[in-house]
Design a protein that fits this description.
Elements: E1 4-10, H1 15-24, E2 31-38, H2 44-51, E3 56-58, H3 67-80, E4 85-88, H4 97-102, E5 107-111, H5 123-130, E6 134-141, E7 151-158, H6 165-188, E8 192-195, E9 198-201, H7 206-209
Parallel strand pairs: 1-2, 1-4, 2-3, 4-5
Antiparallel strand pairs: 5-6, 6-7, 8-9
Helix pairs in contact: 1-6
The structure holds 5-O-phosphono-beta-D-ribofuranosylamine.
5-O-phosphono-beta-D-ribofuranosylamine binds near residues 14, 15, 16, 110 and 112.
Length: about 220
């Protein structure tokens, strides 16, 4: 069966990109990375993609008169690489409705909180300030509103009293790297359906999602 072709969009260090690269190297993994796009020059994620032998394209948003013009070029490049699914992985640009019109239910994102709690930036600082006992990460279908859209998979981690934003970010990031490939696999296997704005996963791997404490 043909593998789902991913267009991964990044703006930075690309550790989630790396998790997708590693997953796609598995022979049985049902997706492959068709191209990696960065809107920022010189970021480490682009080096990771090159090291993996993947096509990379840098499209600096600053040179464009409007968001729509920038996004038209994103779409052109994604189409040119035969992309089926756009995976935002630390891509720090807001996308307008016109981009989504080209990619209906074909854009996903990873966010370092248990959405719909804590959309936006400085997530871990805000989780600590609120005194939350748990946080986590979410892979979701993207919508034009920031960090909104049907949830595909989440993982939860405890918040420790001794945590700093950095220690909490590291604990959450390890889970991000686990659930992003999982969500892509479920999508590639056709196991994710939308019921309105709710995503239903056929036969999710409960043991893998580890949302339930096995000792509990
Ligand atoms: C991750 O925490 C992701 O959830 C958020 O931005 C960060 C990107 O990190 N959207 P990386 O570039 O994948 O290492």
């Amino acid at each position: 069966m043909a593998r789902l072709r991913l267009g991964v969009m990044i703006s930075g260090r690309g550790s989630n990109l790396q998790a997708l690269i590693d997953a796609c190297q598995g022979l049985a993994f049902p997706a492959e990375i068709a191209c990696v796009i960065s809107n920022v020059r010189g970021v480490y994620g682009i080096e990771r993609a090159r090291a993996a032998g993947l096509p990379t394209v840098v499209i600096p948003h600053k040179g464009y008169p409007s968001r729509e013009a920038f996004e038209a070029d994103l779409t052109r490049v994604l189409y040119a690489h035969g992309v089926d699914l756009v995976c935002n992985a630390g891509f720090m640009r807001i996308l307008t409705p016109s981009f989504f019109e080209h990619w209906p239910d074909r854009v996903i994102n990873i966010h370092p909180s248990l959405l719909p709690a804590f959309p936006g930036l400085k997530t871990h600082e805000r989780v600590l300030a609120a005194g939350c006992r748990f946080t986590g990460c979410t892979v979701h279908f993207s919508r034009p509103e920031v960090d909104a859209g049907p949830i595909i998979v989440q993982a939860a981690v405890p918040v420790l009293q001794s945590d700093t934003p950095e220690t909490l970010a590291a604990r959450v990031l390890a889970e991000e790297h686990r659930i992003y490939p999982m969500a892509v696999r479920w999508l590639a296997e056709g196991r994710v359906q939308l019921d309105g704005e709710r995503a239903i996963v056929a036969e999710p791997d409960i043991a893998e999602t580890a949302l339930i404490n096995p000792a509990g």
